[in-house]
Please model this.
Amino acid sequence: MDSAAPPVLSLVSVLSLLACSIQVLAAILLTRRCGGRSSAEDRWILLWLFYDVIVHLTLEGPFVYMSLVGTVETSDGPLAELWKEYGKADSRWLVSDPNIVAIEVLTVVLDSLLGLLLIHAVLKEKYYRHFLQIVLSVCELYGGWMTFCPDWLVGSPNLNTSSWLYLWVYLVFFNGVWVLVPVLLLVQSWFSLRRLHALRPDENYSSVKRKLM
Model:
């Protein structure tokens, strides 16, 4: 849907982008505090995971609450204004769309828990790290697909692409990050697991297998 929309930044949009920047800063500080002994690659992953969990809990959590007790459109407060601003790009977030709310409930509960467990697994070098990393990445990708695919199939009536801000910043950038990074994490898990498999002592494994046979 291409309804008229001002192509300039409003005060609310500036404050919303500032809030997102503060979340990034919080993730950076947490990474520096907790991930000092991790590799450079793992520090980047921790940065993403901290940011991911912060967004799920501090932005999407309140959205779920507002949507379960009413709608974003009828809610008041700074976070409601932030979601109303995003709702200018995708109107489903204003009216407690059942598909959106269902996905967000799963995201806030399951993805946040998986993110926290994965942070612990990365920091403590747990054996189940890549299992969690793969599961979380697939969940994030599934959530993104189910957020937009139903609307695309009916001609995107709820999406407003008339403004560069709504299209390229709100819709493409902020949602694209949750596609690009999970894909990169899946690739990283692939290569890490392949390296672990290459370290397998094949000769000893074969001899033990022969004895068991």
